[in-house]
Structure formats: structure tokens, C-alpha cells
């Protein structure tokens, strides 16, 4: 007797799957664990293996159909079993949609037929229109969600009128060819201004910051993570060199060029943080141009250190000092603030110990270096007073995940912790 092959649960939260393609035809001999069909879910795409060796008697679910976990997909006869009279059991004839399903006898075995295209595997009957709307594949639903498309508005060309990936892509192309008219501007209701309140008009730079930060939070799903760094060796190195460095170079030796140099090392190892989200692809930038957030008291600007991977700590210190001076003197050019691929923020210079920076849109991530503070920590099972800094990275969760962000941070951490009082800076 033929045995059913059912839709497995391909993940803890997966409740349904779509038959993408049958790899075997009715009547084919199949070995145990040999792939029967390709299945797509919201979590994974996988091949469904045969649970035993035998012959594929009947395919119950057609390609492109989405069914619940546990739904019977096909019937298989184990090796050595023959159908009655040595013939393959006939496939049921399905009545037209909307008519009553009738049982069909086959070799003395009676099974109830379902209305074509309306069964969902749990005995529930749905209209063809409802099935078209709700039983599109996970791939189609993801694509529609990414482009803010209501599947119900699309006439499907798939089986039983289901919307296919090609239908979605055709709809997107048509929509882009004829752009929608911009919505009528809505006058936002003003807040009440009371006696004694002071109204500040937006400066152009404040308006730009507001627009870019809003776009970043609106478009990029932010996530962040943090590590603690023991920079006692770096502090000792800077204390030893800062006076000599200032006399020789004419600039102050701060911790920022060390952080930028360590960040560049991390970006070389994990270039996905030096990238941009571009709709259906991710663009990894070849150049490493690091933006440095500079506080101007009433605003924030981000001049860019171009080709930062070609500079050592000494070169970075010179370039950062130059950009900061020009920023605070109002002498930055458009080229100075364009082309950044990654940003380093330095809230620690103002005493911050923890922050969650907003990504400098459209970049993939931003690194924040906090204040260095002395704290008691455990070193070799003993309490010691060490200089400690927190490092955080906010990242676009569309582009990378927390594991990659932490591996990047740990690369930066190792570099900063490698300095000793006797190190050189090049």
C-alpha cells in the first residue's frame, strides 16, 4: 500500500512551505534519502529526501503550491510493493472549482477528492481568490514586502491564479516606468508656543542633520553591540610621547588616530562593514574613507579622511587634526565631507561612557569610542586598576548580523590592547 510523504517542519517557527520543483515524476523509482522535491520556506530552501526506498506513485501537490506543515505531498510505495492488478492507481479527476467533491474508487480503495486548488492540507476549503492572495510562496511575499506591494492588487499568472515572482517583478518594472504622483504636502500642526518660550529657526546644517538622521532610522534597521577594551598600555604610550609629539609635529596626540587605525584594520578583515545597502544588492567599497564626527557645539559635521588605510597613526593624527581645525573654523569644502564609507564617532571626548550612535546613512555601520576611565578589574585572578574604554558599533541589520559586528569589534579591541608603553607609532 502506498504511504504518504508529508511536508516537514523546516525550522522551529516554520508553519508552511512551497513546492518549488518536483525532482521525480510519478512512476519513478526512488532510493532512500534521494531528493524528491525542492521546498522553500521563510527560513530555508531545502530538498525533501525520500523517507524510504520505493516508487513515487502519485504527486498530490503541484509546483508553486504553498501548504501547511504535515500536509500530504505525495504517495510512495515501498520497494517490493505493487499496486492492485499490477497497475498504478489512477489519479483522481477533480471537479471544477465550486462543485461538490465526489469520492473516487480505485482498486477498492476510496479517497475523497478535493476541489482543485482550494484545499490547504488540513481539510479547510478556501476560494481560489483567497488562496491566490494568501498562498503565494515565501519568496514572493518577501519580495512584495521589500517593495511595499499589496499582493491582492496583482493578477497572478501561476497555478490557480497564484502570484509568482515574475508577476511581482513585472509589477515593479511597470510601477517604476510610470512614477506615482507625489502626495499632496500635509501641513503639520504647529506646537503651541507659550509665553517665555524661545523659538529657534533651523539652520541649514541642522535641517540637513535632521533629514539624514531621520532617513537613517527610517530606512536602516539599527542594531548595536559593545565591547570593553583595556587600553592601559595605550594610555602609558601616549603619556610618554604626547609632549615630544606636540613639539615635533605641532599637533596634539589624541587617542582618536589610534582608534581610527584599529578600525581600518577591522574593516580590512571584515569589509562588509565598509559597504552600502542598494535595494537588492550590497556594494562593498574598495576605498576606506573614514568620516570623523566633529562636535561644533550647535551642530555636528563629519569630514572624511580619504584612503585611511594608506596612513599610519602619525599620518592619521596629522590629517585628523587638520580636518578638525578646518571644521571648527568653518573652512571645510564639499569634498571634505563627501565620499565617506565608514564613520568613527568620539563621544568620549565629552565624557560619554556608553552611547548608541545613529548610522551615517547610507553607510553600513558607525563606531563610537567612549571615555577612558580607571576601574578595578580582575587581571590574572587579582584586582588591578586599569584604564578601560567602551567601544560600540551600530550597524544596518539588513547588511550584517551581530556576530560579524562583534568579530569586527574584537579585531579593533585586540589592536588597541596590543600597545605598550614602549611601542612605536610610525
Oligomer: single chain
Q: What is the overall number of helices?
A: 8
Q: Regions with pLDDT < 50 over 5+ consecutive residues?
A: 84-134
Number of strands: 21
Strand content: 15-25%
Structural class: alpha+beta
Query: Considering DSSP H and I runs of 4 or more, what fraction of the residues is helical?
Result: 25-40%
Shape descriptor: extended
Mean of all residue-level pLDDT scores: 83
How large is the radius of gyration?
31 Å
Q: Give the H and E element order.
A: EEEEEEEEEEHHHHEHHEEEEEEHEEEEH
Q: Give the termini separation.
A: 79 Å
Tell me about the biggest sheet?
Answer: 7 strands, mixed
What does this molecule look like?
By secondary structure, the chain is an alpha+beta fold. The chain is 26% helix and 24% strand. The chain contains eight helices and 21 strands. The strands form six sheets. Strands 11, 14, 17, 18, 19, 20 and 21 form a seven-stranded mixed β-sheet that branches. Strand 15 (294-295) and strand 16 form a beta hairpin.
What is the strand and helix layout of this fold?
Blueprint: E1 3-6, E2 16-22, E3 29-30, E4 35-40, E5 45-49, E6 54-59, E7 66-68, E8 72-78, E9 103-106, E10 109-112, H1 128-134, H2 138-146, H3 165-177, H4 204-219, E11 222-230, H5 232-249, H6 256-269, E12 275-277, E13 282-284, E14 290-292, E15 294-295, E16 300-301, E17 304-305, H7 313-328, E18 342-345, E19 365-369, E20 373-379, E21 382-396, H8 402-417
Parallel strand pairs: 14-18, 18-19
Antiparallel strand pairs: 1-8, 2-4, 2-7, 3-6, 4-5, 6-8, 9-10, 11-21, 12-13, 14-17, 15-16, 19-21, 20-21
Amino acid at each position: 500500500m502506498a504511504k504518504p510523504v508529508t511536508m516537514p517542519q523546516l525550522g522551529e517557527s516554520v508553519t508552511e512551505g512551497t513546492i518549488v520543483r518536483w525532482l521525480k515524476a510519478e512512476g519513478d523509482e526512488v532510493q532512500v534519502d534521494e531528493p524528491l522535491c525542492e521546498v522553500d520556506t521563510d527560513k530555508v530552501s531545502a530538498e525533501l529526501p525520500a523517507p524510504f526506498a520505493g516508487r513515487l506513485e502519485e504527486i498530490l501537490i503541484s509546483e508553486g503550491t504553498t501548504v501547511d506543515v504535515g500536509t500530504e505531498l505525495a504517495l510512495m510505495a515501498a520497494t517490493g510493493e505493487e499496486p492492485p492488478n499490477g497497475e498504478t492507481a489512477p489519479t483522481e479527476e477533480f471537479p471544477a472549482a465550486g462543485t461538490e467533491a465526489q469520492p473516487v474508487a480505485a482498486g477498492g480503495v476510496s479517497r475523497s477528492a478535493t476541489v482543485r486548488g482550494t484545499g490547504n492540507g488540513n481539510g479547510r476549503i478556501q476560494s481560489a481568490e483567497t488562496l491566490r492572495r494568501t498562498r503565494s510562496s515565501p519568496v514572493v511575499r518577501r519580495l512584495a514586502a521589500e517593495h511595499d506591494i499589496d499582493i491582492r492588487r496583482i493578477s497572478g499568472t501561476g497555478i490557480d491564479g497564484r502570484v509568482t515572482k515574475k508577476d511581482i517583478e513585472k509589477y515593479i518594472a511597470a510601477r517604476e516606468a510610470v512614477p506615482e504622483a507625489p502626495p499632496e504636502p500635509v501641513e503639520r500642526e504647529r506646537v503651541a508656543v507659550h509665553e517665555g518660550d524661545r523659538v529657534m529657526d533651523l539652520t541649514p546644517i541642522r535641517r540637513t542633520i535632521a533629514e539624514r538622521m531621520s532617513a537613517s532610522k527610517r530606512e536602516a534597521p539599527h542594531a548595536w553591540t559593545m565591547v570593553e577594551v583595556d587600553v592601559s598600555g595605550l594610555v602609558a604610550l601616549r603619556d610618554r610621547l604626547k609632549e615630544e609629539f606636540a613639539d615635533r609635529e605641532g599637533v596634539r596626540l589624541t587617542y582618536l588616530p589610534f582608534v581610527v587605525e584599529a578600525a581600518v584594520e577591522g574593516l580590512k578583515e571584515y569589509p562588509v562593514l565598509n559597504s552600502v545597502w542598494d535595494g537588492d544588492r550590497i556594494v562593498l567599497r574598495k576605498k576606506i574613507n573614514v568620516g570623523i564626527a566633529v562636535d561644533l557645539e550647535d551642530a555636528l559635521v563629519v569630514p572624511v579622511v580619504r584612503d585611511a588605510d594608506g596612513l599610519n597613526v602619525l599620518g592619521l593624527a596629522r590629517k585628523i587634526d587638520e580636518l578638525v581645525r578646518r571644521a571648527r573654523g568653518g573652512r571645510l569644502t564639499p569634498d571634505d565631507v563627501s565620499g565617506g564609507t565608514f564613520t568613527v564617532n568620539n563621544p568620549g571626548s565629552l565624557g560619554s561612557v556608553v552611547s548608541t550612535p545613529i548610522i551615517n546613512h547610507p553607510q553600513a555601520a558607525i563606531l563610537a569610542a567612549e571615555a577612558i576611565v580607571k576601574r578595578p578589574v580582575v587581571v590574572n585572578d587579582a584586582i588591578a586598576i586599569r584604564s578601560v574604554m567602551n567601544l560600540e558599533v551600530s550597524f544596518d541589520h539588513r547588511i550584517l548580523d551581530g556576530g560579524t559586528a562583534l568579530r569586527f569589534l574584537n579585531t579593533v579591541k585586540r589592536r588597541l590592547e596590543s600597545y605598550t608603553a614602549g611601542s612605536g607609532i610610525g
